[in-house]
Amino acid sequence: MAKNKIIYGGNVLIDLTDTTAVASDVASGKYFYGRDGVKTEGTNTKDSDTTDANALAGEILAGRIAYVNKNKVTGEMPNRGGASGTIATKAGEYSIQQGYHDGSGKVGIDATEKAKIIPANIKAGIEILGVEGEYSGEAVTVQSKTATPSTSSQTILPDTGYDYLSQVTVNAIPYTETPNTYGTTVTIG
Asked: Is residue 181 assigned to a domain?
């Protein structure tokens, strides 16, 4: 039979009769003696077993505290909130910084570039970013030219009032033979 109160020489050495602890008050795996003097194992599992936790400080929001594998860890992950940005070129990118994002951020096309994406600027029959083109082209003035090679370089462009050259015909290199007193003179170019 368990003892719950011990008095020796008029002095109370142990008195468990006013103990109020019950098994559910004591952590599981720990022992205590109840008011009846019986050794009892605790059953409380409210304290979590964190021995299998593997989060790192950089994975926990900055300023927050957590317990990982029974160790207190202060978070280091930056809070980026609602990060937002724009893309202004075809090859443009928006870099997403490491950290927590609250989901309210947005990335979109720069307003100046978005204003250019209108039907009148897109060829008819072509769709760009959901905008159907209606541009069918303006009347253009076309010119064709003929050029004769020479010993100098030539840049061949349309004359004023023409939009482009439809073709350039390059004549054969001039070649002539002229008899002379001693034979033949050949002239090229």
From this structure: yes
HSE-CB for 114 with a 13 A CA cutoff: 7
Full domain range(s) for residue 131: 108-137
Both tokens of 13, joined, read 């050495």
Backbone angles phi and psi of 76, in degrees to 5:
-125, -5
pTM of this structure: 0.41
Three-state DSSP class for residue 148: coil
Alpha-carbon span 75 to 173, nearest angstrom: 81
Write out the two tokens for 87: 């893309």
Distance between CA atoms of 84 and 87, rounded to whole angstroms?
Answer: 11
- Asked if residue 100 belongs to a domain, the reply is no
Query: Residue 87, SS3?
Result: strand
CA-nearest of 100, 107, 129 to 116 is: 129
pLDDT 10s digits, 42-52: 998 876 777 78
